[in-house]
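Handout, page 2. Input:
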Amino acid sequence: MVLVDTHAHLYLPQFSDDIRQVIQNATGNHVVKMLLPNIDTGSAGPMLELCRRFPDHLHPMIGLHPTSVKENYREKMAELKSLLGNAEFKAIGETGMDSYWDTEFMREQEDSFIAHLGWAKTMDLPVVIHSRQTTDDLIRIISSRREEGIRGVFHAFSGTVEQAAEITGLGFKLGIGGVVTYKNSGLRPVIESIGMEHLVLETDSPYLSPVPFRGKRNECANVILIAEEIAKIKGIGLEEVALRTSENAARLFKLDIPI
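Output:
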């Protein structure tokens, strides 16, 4: 069995003391690949260094997180864009929009997101999208550029069945994480309604730990708990969830994994 964690912030200080053990825990739980999304200009260096330390298992993305979009976002994006040719990035991200924490820079967030879509098109890379309380806006933006063939993942999807259908209709995957194990998450009908060809697994480590570790630091090893919950909801075997989601991740991110 092979699993892929398509979204983990392993370069953050929460892992500075035991990162080697965290990766060993993951591989011991069949998680052979972990994709690292960038947050800001300050996180790119640590992220790339960590990926160089563990090249068999860790792969980077490049982007500016929407909550990092402030007055100087253009300067930050120019700095990050300059890195595009210097590393083997698997995706553009983490990008998108977020109206939960702050609505002051929503116009700038949209402008940043559209620029990231341009990077994805130019580099022929998938885009990994943060969509907290902005899912409909992001669907609108992507729909207006449908002819550009942009592909990717709506990370930490927590929307409705209708939104899930729109997103998958645009050719995007849904990133399903630990929230699916929460009693009142609302994700059960989404998982029931969506085919396995549209799903990838993620932890968002160190955040959003699945039950029974909710409230504690999340780790990539916990992908297996997410896969088990999806298997229960779909009424299929764990091995099938692992196979299908890993195949999806391998195709989308061009990963070389032994499926």
